[in-house]
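Methods, example record. To illustrate the input and output format used throughout this study, we show the complete record for Adenylate kinase. The sequence lines were provided to the predictor; the line carrying structure tokens was produced by it.
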Amino acid sequence: MTLERIVIVGKPGAGKTTLAGELASRLSLHNVELDAINWQPNWVPLPKDEMRERVSESISATDNWVLDGNYKAVRDIVWGRADTLIWLDYPLWLALWRVFKRTMGRIFKQKELWNGNRESIGHHLTLDPEENLFAWTIRMHKSHRNDYPTLFEQPEYSHLKVLRFRSPRETESWLQTIPSARDV
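The corresponding predicted structure is encoded as:
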């Protein structure tokens, strides 16, 4: 199986960024994190046109890359150029637990994410799914389960090798079949 241009999708807490980092290391791929491109200082999202331009530049700069994220605004660019799509379709309860642990750690350690942004308790006390990562996770779980199977059937994405993993154990078993560039 060719693994040269990989996109990793899934709800928050699935482990997209972690898996992308591991694959980038194992396969010597350029690593692109969509959240790092999108989120500007003070949690201001990059305008759609600029986002599309930056993502296109990031994946055109090299022939081999791994990218994580679910942004509809760049789906046609990313999925159109990818050879493999990995869908981390884990149970909702697991994603919510991981989001909780990750978020609490980030808040208490005041970890900077992208462009000076940090998570705060205030982000998670609102019911607005655009602000509350837990509400967003629930929304995306339902959306992905409904939309992704249909999207994978579209002619413009028929070239993609789609790998759907339903548990971290399943993902880890597959990952162990990928030789590390360090071992070659």
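Annotations derived from this record:
The longest strand covers residues 5-10.
The longest helix spans residues 133-152.
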